Amino acid sequence: MKIDLKLTYIVLLVMMLSACSRHNTADNPIHSTPSPEPKQTVVPKQTVEPKQTAEPAAPAKPAGTSAVETATQADRPYRAKPPLPVITAGAAEIPAVQASYCWDYLGCADTAIGEMMYDGQTLTVVQPGERIDTVLNYEPQPSSVIVTPVVDEHAYDPVPLTDGGFTAPEEKGVYYFMYFANWTTEDGVHTLNQTSAVFAFEVR
């Protein structure tokens, strides 16, 4: 009887130990085998290259800006200043002095006439009744040319011109004249340019 009780006790003890072992394995985290953590896959970082900003295009050059096109008309030789007439008496040249004008982009300028403008010039001596020629070396030629005598700083009626010339007075003395040249439109309605000059000579 004692043997049976001892055996029974031993069996119960083994059963208790076995139950405790199962309990610790299933429910006790201390004794449980930790589950392996999932490996984190390292994704390599992609290098993003910075976008290249296109350089702004250079501004286009304005058309029609050549040296010739940008030059004003006043810079051109044939328009730089009003032309002066060439006044001659035979082989002798009579000086001409620029007077009033309205010329291209130079605008207009008013001056005195007669003796005041001719001050300092050497008087050319001509013969009584000698032919006085006036020539304007300029193209286009003026639409009209008139020559008027000046007395006491006043211009009088034009002298008759024949092929650009006229006859010197018969009486001796110093004579002043104004030369006027005028350029107009083809219909003669509008004035384009005009210039004048004073000249003088002495009849002996």
UniProtKB/TrEMBL annotation:
Protein name per UniProt: Lipoprotein
Positions of the UniProt region annotated as Disordered: 26-79
Keywords assigned: Signal
Signal peptide: 1-26
